[in-house]
């Protein structure tokens, strides 16, 4: 067992939504290892921006983004935290923040950008295709 968002005790796995370089066919997908692909689809409440090598999302009530949902183990989640420069004990200096939302797939984690998006271009349609 490991502790997830807000300290809730979780199973040895959790669901994670990926929307950029971790998607199938992209350069960081191998970090998901043997994680199980659950489904793909749009989630509402987020807007996507292109940062050239990877995308970023922020909360935006009237927008939606395309994601792939994976069931990941705790060690894979730790690898994703490292990739996204997420520091649970130092959120002010984290590149992304990992949050938990309720979706049609149940609770899912996703990484929300934690820096300035000045001069970043919006990804129209919310589906990053580098």
Q: What's the CATH C level?
A: Alpha Beta
Strand line-up across the major sheet: 3-5-4-8
Report the principal-axis shape: globular
Beta content comes to over 45%
Question: Low-confidence segments, ≥5 residues, pLDDT <50?
Answer: none
Q: Sheet with the most strands?
A: 4 strands, antiparallel
Class by SSE composition: mainly beta
| Rg (CA only) | 14 Å
Number of helices: 1
Using brief descriptors, characterize the structure shown:
two-stranded antiparallel sheet; single chain; 4-stranded antiparallel β-sheet; globular; Hypothetical upf0131 protein ytfp; 48% strand; mainly beta; 130 residues
Helix and strand arrangement:
Blueprint: E1 2-3, E2 9-10, E3 13-18, E4 36-50, E5 55-73, H1 74-83, E6 96-103, E7 106-113, E8 121-122
Antiparallel strand pairs: 1-2, 3-5, 4-5, 4-8, 6-7
Can you give a write-up of this model?
This protein has 130 residues and is mainly β. It has one domain (13-122): Hypothetical upf0131 protein ytfp. 8% of the residues lie in helices and 48% in strands. The chain contains one helix and eight strands. The longest helix is centred in the middle third of the chain and has 10 residues, at 74-83.
Outline:
The chain has 130 residues and is mainly beta.
């Amino acid at each position: 067992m490991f502790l997830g968002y807000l300290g809730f005790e979780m199973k040895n796995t959790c669901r994670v939504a990926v929307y950029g370089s971790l998607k199938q066919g992209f350069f960081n997908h191998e970090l998901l290892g043997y994680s199980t692909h659950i489904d793909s689809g749009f989630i509402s409440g987020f807007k996507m921006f292109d940062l050239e090598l990877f995308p970023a999302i922020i909360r935006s009530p009237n927008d939606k983004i395309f994601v792939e949902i994976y069931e990941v183990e705790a060690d894979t989640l730790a690898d994703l935290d490292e990739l996204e420069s997420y520091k649970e004990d130092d959120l002010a200096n984290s590149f992304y923040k990992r949050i938990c939302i309720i979706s049609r797939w149940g609770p899912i984690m996703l990484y929300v950008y934690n820096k300035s998006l000045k001069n970043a271009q919006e990804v129209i349609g919310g589906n990053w295709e580098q």
